[in-house]
Design brief:
Order of helices and strands: EEEHHEHHEHHHHHHHEHEHEHEEHHH
Helix content: 40-55%
Number of helices: 17
Strand order of the largest sheet: 6-5-4-7-8-10-9
Radius of gyration: 22 Å
Number of strands: 10
Distance between the termini: 62 Å
Strand content: 15-25%
Oligomer: single chain
Structural class: alpha/beta
Largest sheet: 7 strands, mixed
């Protein structure tokens, strides 16, 4: 059976550990909180939505979907829920409609298929009998949470409607496994079973059971009714590509308003942090679009600059520090510019970026070529630059 390594993070959302990458998918303070702070809050979505009714998102390394779900949650809360969705028809008729297209990319189909089922707001967070990297994760969970965001159930339902038809026997086996049951939402699993009952060849008895489920979910559940009403104002088109992101983007003809780049760190997954991949993203970004990522790496920022972007920093008001990077074509969209220190660090060996001209190299080949380039470079080391910078700023 496909193996998961889940645990509850400090904001009540489920995080995952990857044995292959020997790394966690999500931040120390919470998976959902990270998505909001590093991808949604810096995106200036309120301003964008005042001027545009259509929006396209490229979600690179979809995982279990927190970035996409946080975006949909924002849209729902800011443009629909505040206007009382129970009376949408009376308020708007058919005049206003948000048109949303999300292209999600990942190499792990099971994580993507299971994304609507993960619990995102567990009130009492207990991680009992962790059988994987227990000390590492427990240490991570000791960090304080900076804030907490709530994900509306309607969003999971909306995403579930797109992914339920894709779920295969392997993913369903994980859903049924008792060892993972505490991490999955029983409500969503019930909707999935309802979907299966409605779409398969059924007996009269099973048809009757399905009918009873229909009564509950369609007429008694406020979440389901709210989700249906929400869809009246959201034309939500979702495409999932289970393949190498380089291939998926090369074969994509769309241009996007926002790109969420959430790959494992450059050291773990350099193929998605190369100057050549960034040039490809540049071609798929609208003139007023944004690329958002959690990385503060000098080589990542230097690669963005050399790929043609203007580059700035993402600031977290709750953490009181810079927590990521923004790359744009329109310089006026940058609120926090790179500092003299940031620019100086990019001119050291630490700023030498990864290369993958063919967009086909594996991670090991990219790392090896980068290592040789760094060793042969005449640039000063980052440690020497930092000492010089500190010395000059003390005078």
């Amino acid at each position: 059976m496909y193996k998961l390594y889940p645990y509850f993070t400090n904001d009540g959302s489920v995080g995952l550990f990857s044995p292959n990458a020997d790394d966690i998918y999500h931040s120390t303070y919470g998976a959902l909180t990270e998505a909001y702070e590093k991808f949604i809050l810096p995106s200036d979505l309120k301003n964008f939505l005042q001027k545009n009714s259509e929006i396209k998102i490229l979600d690179i390394c979809f995982g279990i979907g927190y970035n996409t779900k946080s975006f949909l949650n924002f849209i729902y809360n800011e443009t629909i829920y505040k206007d009382n969705i129970k009376h949408i028809d009376k308020l708007y008729g058919n005049n206003i409609k948000r048109k949303i297209f999300i292209h999600a990319i990942d190499t792990d189909k099971n994580l993507a298929y299971l994304s609507p089922f993960f619990i995102s707001n567990k009130k009492t967070r207990k991680n009992n009998k962790l059988s994987f990297e227990q000390e590492k994760i427990q240490k991570m969970l000791s960090d304080k949470i900076s804030c907490r965001f709530e994900l509306r159930k309607e969003i999971e339902i909306m995403l579930g409607k797109k992914l339920f038809p894709l779920i295969d026997s392997e993913a369903e086996e994980v859903l049924k496994a008792s060892e993972y049951s505490q991490y999955f939402d029983k409500y969503m699993y019930g909707l999935f079973k309802l979907y299966k009952n409605q779409t398969c060849k059924i007996t009269h008895l099973r048809q009757f059971i399905s009918f009873l489920h229909n009564i509950y979910y369609r007429y008694l559940s406020p979440c389901y009714k709210n989700a249906i009403n929400a869809l009246k104002l959201i034309d939500f088109n979702f495409k999932l590509s289970i393949e190498d992101a380089r291939t998926a983007v090369k074969n994509d003809s769309n241009k996007y308003n926002y790109v969420f780049l959430d790959a494992f760190t450059p050291v773990k997954c350099p193929c998605l942090w190369t100057i050549d991949f960034f040039k490809l993203i540049y071609e798929h970004l609208e003139d007023d679009g944004m690329v958002l990522t959690y990385s503060n790496s000098a080589l990542v920022r230097n690669a963005f600059l050399n790929a043609g972007f203007y580059v700035g920093k993402i600031y977290s008001d709750s953490a009181k520090k810079f927590t990521g990077t923004i790359a744009v074509k329109n310089k006026s969209l940058i609120k926090h510019e790179l500092s003299e220190y940031d620019l100086g660090l990019m001119k050291t060996k630490a700023g030498i970026f990864y290369r993958d001209k063919s967009l086909t190299l594996d991670n090991e080949a990219i790392i090896e070529a980068h290592k040789i380039e760094v060793e042969n470079s005449p640039l000063i080391s980052s440690s020497k630059f930092i000492k010089q910078y500190r010395r000059s700023n003390e005078i």
